[in-house]
Structures are given as C-alpha cells and as structure tokens.
Amino acid sequence: MSDSSSIAPVSPRRWWTLAVVALAQLMVVLDSTVVNIALPAAQHDLGFSDGSRQWIITAYSLAFGSLLLLGGRISDLIGRKRAFLIGLVGFALASALGGAAPDLGLLVAARALQGAFGALLAPTALAVLATTFTVPRERSRAFGVFGALAGAGGAIGLLLGGYLTEYVGWRWNLYINVAIALVAVVGAIVLVPTIARSGPRPRLDIPGTVLVSGGLFALVYGFSNAETDSWSSPLTWGMLVAAGVLLIAFVLWQRRAAHPLLPLAIVLDRTRAAAYFSILLAGVAMFGIFLFITYYLEVNLGFSPMSTGLAFLPMIGMLVLAAQVGNNLLVPRFGAKVLVPIGMGLGALGMLLLTRLDAHSTYAGGVLPSLLILGTAMGTIMPSSFQSATLRLDPRFAGVGSAMTNTSQQVGGSIGTALLNTLVATAATDYVGSHLPATPAVAAAAAVHGYTVAFWVCAGVFVLGGVLSGTLYRRHRHALGRMPTAAIATQEPAIAH
Fold this sequence. Notes:
disordered C terminus, 18 helices, 2 domains, globular, Growth Hormone, Chain: A, mainly alpha
C-alpha cells in the first residue's frame, strides 16, 4: 500500500509523473469553465428553465468545495497512487454519465459526482507533486507548470468549450474528460510511485470531517444563493452564519482532537498562510477576468464562443511564460515575498486598464493590453503561491495541506461569483434608472458600466493581496530548504516554521 508518511525517492521518471499530474489538474480546472459555455446548448436540448440552469454549476462547486479537505485526508490515509486512480476513474465515469444525461436531474447528479471525485483528485495531484519534487530547483520548474495550469485552466476551458459546443456538441464538453482520464490512468499506473507504509495506520477525524464539510458546504451554498436570490435572502445569511459557526467549531475541535483532520500548525505557518490568502484573493479576481471579459466580448463586441476562447490565448501565453521565467529564475533568487506582491500589483494595473472600456472599445486597443498584463500577473502569483503552500510540509499531511490550497481557490471563486455578480447587476440597474428611456444603446452602456464596477473591485482585491502577501510572506532566506521528512509531528505552530 502506498504511504503518505514518506517522501518518494527521486525517480528518473519524475518529469513524466509531472505530465500525468498536470493532465489530471487540467481536467479538474477545465470543468470549472468548460461546461459554462455549453449551458445554452444544453438548456435548449434538455428543455430546462433559466432558474434551474444555475444548478449545473452549483452542484459541482458545492460537492467540490465542501469535500476538498476530506478528499485530501483520504489521500493521506489510503495512499497517493490509490487515491489518484480512484479520483481519475470516478471523475471519468461521472463525466460520461453527464454527457449521456437525458434530463436535467441526471445532469445535475453527474456534476455533483464530478465535484466529489474532483475533491479527491485535485489535492492528491498536488500532493503527488509536492512529495515527488523535493530538490528546490526542480521543484520550482514543476510548480511553474502546475501553477500555470491552475491559472490558465479557466481560459483554456473557454477555448475548448467554445470549440466543442460550436463544432461537435455540448455533450462533448463532458465526454472529453473520459479521454483525458484514460491517458492519465495509464500514465499513473506506470509512473506514479507506490511507497510502502511504515508505522501505524492513521485514523480519520470523523467529527472534524463533519464540521468542516458542513461548514464549507454552507459557505459555498450561501455565496451561490446570494448570486441567485440576493444578499437580502434569509437563506443566504442563514447559510453564511451556519458556515461561520461550523468552521469555528472545526477549529476548536482541531485543537483537542487526537487525530486532527487538519493540524493547525499547517495553516498557522506564515508562509503557508500567505500562500492561502494569495490564492483566495487571486481566485476572486480571476472570476472577474474570465466572466466579465467574456460577457464584454460576446455581448458588446459580438464575438462567438470560439472567438472568445481564442481571444484569451495571448493571456494564456503570457501566463505560461511568466510562470516559467518566474519560478525558474526569479523565485529562487528573490522568493515569493517579492514575486507575489509584484504579481498582485500587475493584476491591479491590468484591472485598472479594463475600467477604461466603453461600448465602442475594440479588442486590440482595449482588451488585449490588459489580458497580456493580467496573464503576466497570474503567472507570477499562482506558481509561487502553490509552491509556497506545500513547501516543507510533512508528507503525512501533504494531501490535506494541498487540499487547503484548492479550498482557498474554490472559496475565492465562490466569493467572486456572488460579490461581483451582485455588484454588476446593481450598477447596471442603477445606470438604466438614471438614463431613461432604456434604449438598446443605454442597455449596452449600462452593461459596460456594471463590468467597470467589477474591474474596480478586482483592482482593489489585487491591492489587498499585494499588502497581505508582502506582509505575511517570510524573507527568502527563511523560506528556502529541502522538504524535511517530518516537519509537523504535533499541533505546535512553531514546528512548522
């Protein structure tokens, strides 16, 4: 049986392992956006209402967000390779079920299953990477690739989703996962190492699992409900209050649990806390980048779904380039304490440029410069943050520690969905109300005004991220070093430093 308490020996096939892990990560990240573009076609084919459409997105995010820490801990308990294979096969089967769904109910159920298996697969993929690459220079290269996929996956999903929906059919947005998973399964069987377990089998913290899964479910549901039913809805605030109570109870329980689900030393380390905050805030802003630029291109500039996906390619290119240059050349020299705040500053600049868009702006003159800057920003932020979040993390807890990284990104996206959509809708409504009569030209200007409000907020989020990351990240000389074999043995925060 594979072990979560040991670091894998350096394998000559480790770069092929990276390819397998990256493929699995791409599949999970793609599904956060690739299905969105297929929604109108799926709605027309299956005949469900506008009010029901949101559940295709919400079912995935609820299952994924609420089960991430459990998935990470299961990875620690049953072994990386076994968890990785179960996650891949389960995700593929759920995708096939969704692709063949004859009605909304089965499609929503399949999306929930995708989220559940994704919650096992995503942290396991990151944990495999964290325990495979322990040499600092190689680790930087590996996390450069992984972080680039985490940042660019949404844009790649828009491109792939647009192509499949336009030329093949909406169901292939789900079927494509079966092909990806098949390649990854074969690669994992051959390439991902199996390490013999030593010592007693750890136990699962059942009360902690119930508390954190319930808390994260209520949190994601509360933000999702705010988007559809408004912030004034009793259900919205009831869920958010319940989330706060459950998550506080989870923290209190972790302080006294004999076998904690998430040892608090993991999150109390300054470097990891900085990484988690950076990923969360970047997740909020990334939502603004992808959703509202997509709206602007399709609604205001008349782009097709395929053209919209192609419009994001320059951003992906800059993101990949910045990720490789940053992680291979700049992070080893300057550290995340310098690079992440610079990335946040670039993100704020890119968003500020987007606030200048109007109903008559062009892609080349108005959108493209911002996309290039934002791609550079995300390529600077995400790989450094992913690497910092798992640096010197005890391999026994690599799964649940990696799950915190995914949880931060998921919660950030949920906050962005609810907050930015609400602000945009309110701003657009107010604009129309003050520019009556509501002609088509006024409606177009109102939409752009709403996007502008979102871009201003995202710029502020990047500024906040720059301040927090610059304050919390340790100096570079304190963050270096080879990953130890037992960095976290007790609950004391000091031992994680």
